[in-house]
Amino acid sequence: MSAGPDMRLPEVALEHALRFDNRLVRRLPADPETGPRRRQVEGAVWSPVLPTPVAAPRLIAHSAEMAAALGFDEATILSPAFAEVFGGNALMPGLMPYASNYGGHQFGHWAGQLGDGRAITLGEGTDASGQRWELQLKGAGPTPYSRTADGRAVLRSSIREFLCSEAMHHLGIPTTRALSLVATGDAVVRDMFYDGRAAAEPGAIVCRVAPSFIRFGHFELPYARGDVALLRRLVDFTIARDFPHLSGEGESLYADWFAEVCTRTAVMVAGWMRVGFVHGVMNTDNMSILGLTIDYGPYGWVDDFDPDWTPNTTDAQGRRYRFGWQPRIAHWNLGRLAQALSPLFADVAPLQAGLDTYASTYAALDRRNIAAKLGLAEAGDADVGLMQRLHGVLQAGEVDMTLFFRGLADLDTRAPSLDVVADAFYDADKRDALAAEFEAWLQAYVARIEAGGEPAELRRQRMRAVNPRYVPRNYLAQQVIDAATRGDVAPIGELLEVLRRPYDDQPGLERFAARRPEWARTKAGCSMLSCSS
Ligand code: AMP
Ligand code: MG
């Protein structure tokens, strides 16, 4: 065990297909101190720290796809040793646990050093196909970056991260993944509503998996400290490890890399906008350099279409992270990254070019979303207008985004009627009041389809490929959480099973596609979430 003399955890062998090379810790400067004493860490990208053992680790869910990719077979997954390792009580041979050091802009303001306050990377390596994976426990106990907090995570937020990150993958949107969800058997105290009524909740640990967990904030911190040497080392490392297809050198390589980060970020956000995902905390420390959706906290899924909705109660005032602002917030965040990288450039032009690439890529993807969501071969200016008009009536009419677009695919253009989206309306009065507007929109839409002259089935297929039937609606996740809190963890696996095929109809499972029930309209966890997790 190379993490330090005072660090010890038992080692258990688990069969898997990863070859650990722990490249980040071998190549980048380390904090000389070991262990979780809270501190400012200068001149280093990572700190050696071990998970803190938990009382009674028990596996309560896992991702079959992720287990297969990493080469864990079913027997291994279900073994007590697996829960020991992924609950933080033991290590497998080859791991070098650490917490990484990053800063970030939170809600528009520079926040200084943040770092992995409750995430501990166990190790990184490559699978049988050469794909790189880092295994990271979230909620594994204190690290040097835990500040005043405990390094733990509660069951409810861990279930949400586990389910939503896997769902996002199956929706085809870049994301970190989740291998396992382990209940710790320990209680974690949280003040969920920030009203002074702290309560003990069950604790849990998710093992997140991604090729890299490097964030924009990793680059911002050395920039803010004027440590250009460290900044350059981190950039060179990131390009070599995570962007090996990029060639060239010096400024032109850095420019190509930044442009790719911008493009990937645009792809991610366009994915979110297509399916109605609201991240909720798009701080720069929660932005992945690979353009992966990362850090599932007070996120939410749009039920009734509303570009102004934010699920995050901490964001309720300014609503900076509202659904409709996500594309521009991503641009702002990329601006902070550009600023952090500026010492590596003689001139800002390449960085500005990257930001422009974000804008043009996002605009093109937005067009593609509009076309596909409406079932058109491509979207011209008039079609953008058609979509904007639709957004207006959907918002005014309180209409479920997912159900509406899915149902619209079944529209019979010879006899157009709102019947195909009847289940999408939350308020019958609003529907009736807006009947004429909906009617007018349907007519314009049908005229557009007919002008396109394509077979109805082609349109339908196009729409069904991008408009999911199943998303991890907030209330569905909450029902699973409520069951798990009562001791019934089976619903976690049942919901995950449905979310594995979000674009299929899945007869018999329609209840998982139902719009938000009335009881969930204002219930915590269903429409509003706090950062407390
Ligand atoms: P977030 O807003 O969840 O992305 O977290 C912002 C910062 O707070 C990150 O540095 C996290 O690691 C840290 N943090 C959040 N929750 C905890 C916790 N329970 N214990 C320690 N650090 C935490
Ligand atoms: Mg975070």
Textual characterization of the structure:
This protein has four domains: 19-212, no CATH class; 217-371, no CATH class; 375-466, no CATH class; 474-520, no CATH class. Helices cover 40% and strands 13% of the residues. It has 17 helices and twelve strands. β5 (103-106) and β6 form a beta hairpin. α10 packs across α15 (456-466). Residues 1-6 have low confidence and may be disordered. The structure holds adenosine monophosphate (AMP) and magnesium ion.
Tell me the structural class: alpha+beta
- Please, how many helices? 17
* Total separate domains: 4
The low-pLDDT segments are 1-6
Rg result: 24 Å
Bound ligands, each once:
adenosine monophosphate, magnesium ion
Helical content (DSSP H or I, runs of 4+) = 25-40%
H-E order? EHEEHHHEEEEEHEEHHHEEHHHHHHHHH
In one word, what is the shape?
globular
Query: What is the terminal-to-terminal distance?
Result: 31 Å
